[in-house]
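Write out a sequence, fold above all:
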Amino acid sequence: MGVLPDRSKKIVPSIYHDLMTNPASPILDFYPRDFELDMNGKKMDWEAVVKIPFIDEKRLLAAMAPKNALLSDVEKARNEFGVTLKFTHDPDVDFTYPSSLVGIFPDIAHCHCVENIFDLPTIEGLEYHVGLMEGVKLGDAALAGFPSLATLPYNATLGFHGVNVFQQDSRNESMVVTIENTEERTNVKTATMKLGHRVFVGYPFLQEGKVVKVSDELFDYLPADGGTSHPIQQLHGPREIDDFRKKAERIENNYSKRLGIIIGAVESITHVEMLKGLLKTDEGATVKEYAVIPGMETEYASQVIVDEVVSEDQRFLEKAAVPIEEEFPPGSRAFFLGEFNYGRPLEVVGHKDNRAEIWLSTTKGKEMEFGRNIVMSHHTKSHYTPSYAVAKMLGLHPLVLSKITSSFSVSALGLPRLNLGLNLKFESKKLKVLGYSRRSDSGWEFSNKAIELLSTYMTKFPEFIAGIQRKPQGNEYDETDFYPAEIAGAKIKEIAAWLKSIESKNFEKVPLDAEQLDSDAVMAIEKASDDALANGPGIEFKKLKGVPRNALIKPADAEHRLGNQRFTLGDRVVYVQDSGRVPIATRGTVVGISRTPRTTLLDVVFDVTFMSGTSLGERCTAFRGSTVSTASVLNLSNKQVIAGSKAAVEKRPAPVTALLTVNGGYGMPVGPGGQGQYREAGAPPPLRGSFRGAVAGQNQNGFSRGNGVPRGRGRGGLGHSGDNAAPAVHSSMAIRGNSQGQMNGARGARGGPANGFRGGRGGPPPPAPAQAFNAVPPPPSLDNRGRGGPRGRGGRGRGFPRGRGGVVQAQQT
């Protein structure tokens, strides 16, 4: 009564409702409907300080006193202290526990719970231990997740450093940490020794990762390939050099100004893939999985990389496979991953020859696939129109449409900001309204329901819409901009009442990239599920022998084996974890997919109700829905972890290996059966048209210009500006020659003279010999125009038509 507003009166006993709403109530002033918002520099209404009167405790209790005697016995008991209860599981007890709220909560069938009064133990005579307990781990031995400066050698001093706190440099002294011996660790030779190894990054908040690349100003270093011990080097261009300098400066500045840690100059950067989790192999071993996780940093200064830690994270320890008898003892429950009866529960009854014997719960026929059909029908019926087309259809200025479909604030009714928008889109929050709006590559789009709502708004309040139309680019609006002063207040109240009646603030808001079905489609899936469950085949039990280990999945291993599954709307799933809010082995249908930086979440409407179920934002029946992670369910529609079948091999993506040589070329392309991937093609047609026509998308057969004489104008490949020039990357090359297609007298490329020649007089320059790049000095100048050398215009050839863009031998890196 001292906290809730009158609109929440249903939460308190009904006997008190009059005290919150009756005009004759002695404490009615405690529950005002109209009050002032103190924005105090805030931008959003919910950030404001609400100016409502303080509660006078004596007045409140005096007003409640006559009502207290009218409370029911249950309500009186609820308002008093009770005893502490202890609930214990007893397998010998089996009864039906009646619902505590009939019509809201279902009865609990097969309840094995015993209720007893629990007496809290007393602490009289006991002594407290002051200080750290014996065996606590501190410093560099701290447990995983606890930050410690001691994992690297450092010293600290108090001084003025201007550490940035709350977007402002500190004016007082700060404790500044300086990392020691950084010169050796930031050296690129030391850093490349960690390629392919696990390390710990993010000092002093350490997280495990795997080094995949090391870079300095001039080169990228990748793990060695082909049995060599030297890392593969990739030369940086001018842009990569500039990017490295910016990254190094950013990393050093972030440590210095944000954390107060001086790490010294960053000479090399270590690139890592972060530890994603554990992966269970088909053989039963548990191994670590590393990947680039969106939203997590992957580039770290080499001098703050920690090689090893004293206390390993026990949650992410790799384990070798144990015998199948130990992993799946008789009586253990699991799920079947065979091609038929995929995802059905089972019980292990024995073992033979390193294989299991199981009792499998089976059903006749295939898994029900009504979900995808309903989703396809829903997408066919739902139509979205781009915002510019909606504006043209309704005769609105595009800015006006943008204002009224989002949060539109007006200074009215004594309030500085009154929201009179439809709240159908939220650009800054990156949210859309389910069934009304969505964001595509071309901009916002609105459904027919949204267009109908806009039309109703315009029809009911034409003066209001016309007032916005008069100044569509305005930022501040007053109630008198729409109506005369004498009726403005009443009209604005009428608009606010209509907006409240359509409950636009209660529309389902989801992220822009989320895939969600609206309530109509979800209810159709729910009805189809009920029909299929009522008319579906019964369950039978079958004994199978010789089941391999990889055809069984324990509930405890679901997180390690199912995290990489893919899902689409309408997929059928089964919950396979033995923890969480959903009962194990419950089947359902995916009606929503949303993604976070670390995982993908699924909105699932299940076939049956359960205690902790939700309505998925009023889209389905209460207690039928839940939001779960992809690692907790098995996709039954798209079987991606099938074991021991041809389908399993086809489902798994084929490994892609690039056969790169030291010089950057590719190995022989291999196709099916070890044959080449390319087939012999016929001769191309004669060259026609012109270069300009080719650029414009015409005359696609070539660049010829009159009499079959090729004429080209283009930037040639990258040549050598001198003996010490770095190898250049092959660019597009345009040639010029005579009618026989010969390349004699070709003019020099615009990227620089080829091997020091200014122009060809009788033939192209000789090809540059192949060379390794492990010890190539940097170019003499990185600032000249062109790539790899000064810009040049080769000499004109004799007796041939004038042209630009001669032939240059370039080498591919």
User: Anything to note?
Assistant: The CA atoms of residues 317 and 410 lie 58 Å apart.
